[in-house]
Amino acid sequence: MTVQHPQYGWEIKDSDDIPSSPEQGRSFFDILQARTSRRSVLRGFAAGAAASGVSLTGCSAIMAGSDKGELTFTELPHGQDETFHVAPGYEHDVLISWGDKVLADAPAFDPHNQSAQAQSKQFGYNNDFVGFLSLPLGSDNSDHGLLAVNHEYTISELMFPGSPKTDQMSKAQADIDMMAHGLSIIEIKKTDGKWAVVQGSKYNRRITPVTEMRMTGPAAGSDRLRTAISQDGVRTLGTYGNCAGGVTPWGTVLTAEENVQNYFKGDPTKTKEAENYRRFGLSGEHEYAWANYYDRWNLAKSPNEPLHVGWIVEIDPFDPESRPQKRTALGRCKHEGCNVYVNKDNRVVAYTGDDQRFEYVYKFVSKNKYDPSNRAANMRLLEEGTLYVAEFTDGGLVTWRPLVFGQGPLTAANGFRNQGDVMIDVRKAADLLGATRMDRPEDVEVNPQTGSVFVMLTNNSKRKEGDTNAANPRAKNQSGHIIEMTPPDGDHTADRFMWDMFIIAGNPQTEGAKYHPDISANGWFADPDNCAFDNHGNLWIATDGAYKDGVADGVWACAVSGEARALTKHFLRTPLQAELCGPFFTPDNQSFFCSVQHPGEEGTYDQPTTRWPDFRNDLPPRPSVVAINKTGGGRIGS
Length: 638
Known about the structure:
This protein is 11% helix and 28% strand. By secondary structure, it is mainly beta. The chain has a single domain (15-260, 309-630), classed as 6 Propeller (Neuraminidase). A hairpin with a 5-residue loop joins strand 10 and strand 11 (253-257). The longest helix is centred in the first third of the chain and has 15 residues, at 38-52. It starts with 37 loop residues before the first helix and ends in an 8-residue tail after the last strand.
């Protein structure tokens, strides 16, 4: 069969449609459809591994260790309405909502009397990533801990009476809007089966776009990072556009800066960074009003400021006085999240996806080794190492290409002066290495039981008719898919993995989706975004955009191997027009946290489509974190 190259025709409808990726670099359309079964994939990988001296002996053992038949909960039906639903036999409680107190001296939330000072002490807007860390530090306590929560972006039409447009806010509104970004860290405790925020806790903290931070790694100190605020290229302020994230084995939180291009105004072509900004999708057509009042977000006044965002940020939630660190060794892109795995040689491997259509999957391998007895040293592991980008090759192989200055095309001839430049221009570097352009890579997580790596690919509706193959069976891929990658002999530092299609999402009656053949009418989903694994290795999938298919977003769960592989079951669903984010378990798997983001996003403050979770006429819909427990106690999923 002849495989044709697609001819893309972009429409910029949202941040993920920005056509910043150039045509070079192999897309999935360039990959042959030779793999007709998982057995042929294994044969191809084994042959390649033998040629390179890589062992495959651990692969079958890893695959055989996964769980069977653990998901016995009764499925929830599809639907769409104004409220939150969870499977029968489970209870949910709203733990915290936009405007609730984080700091002890925060005022009670009053949407008619908001201020930046109040919002800087209250829970922010549009919660996304949720990470639970047990208290005390180093324990596996499942009834007491810290919760770190991202606040990705805001919707001014839902936040303020009168529903002002985001780029037309007054200065007072813009300041409130700014303080609603960033993160919240809260202490929580479970008493009599119910979770609650510990008010007045020394750990409770807000992190915002003006919090003092520090750049680390190869780009720190670069002249390209010098601004009026950061004259040394090391000091930096704040974080925003925080999508998903991760929790490290040494008890820190990683937060991912994603769609940061929307905050800047001005003409990027008149800056020295015009090429970088074009590749990043920064047009200067700002969606927020911050640049109307602050030079920091005006390219004419601070042309290097955009290079201070687009990074993975590491935060120590156990030390409220600690300064967050931006880890430039992990590259600058639209990071969806970042998840860390301790390899068998004790080096750490961090996986991250660049969440935009036709962008890339990355992994970072640390130079130094994890030492469970030396937390201080572990907190520097993400400063030094090698970043790789994935090329998905014929026969079901992933080849990891190192992004190292001086190797291959990453030289002065292509505009790179040092490793810092490679990390700042990581998309350009990945282009030059011929990495595979993917369909919006989002969460990339390691299954703790099998060692396989699962990649959530949300969608790519820009694929044309006639450009399909076995790896991409549908044109206009509205609903996304999930890929499983398996490292040889469980070695995540290896330069070649095996890959296979796990699920092709969407309605199997209309979209040619592929699941387990026994999937129920409620078991299908669309637009996989975030994910989590329980202690049995089951995959829990959160979605973003399923409502376009006539069903609410939510969470579906399935086994990853055995007879029930890819047999997804519907566990929960969100209120109208809400996205489900940040699925996260307590260590004992008896509690499950998640974020409900942008409930009622198609409405306005004055004309809401839902008033979840309060259902009070004096309150708009409020993004919230939800805690779920099994009625009477027990493992989530049983």
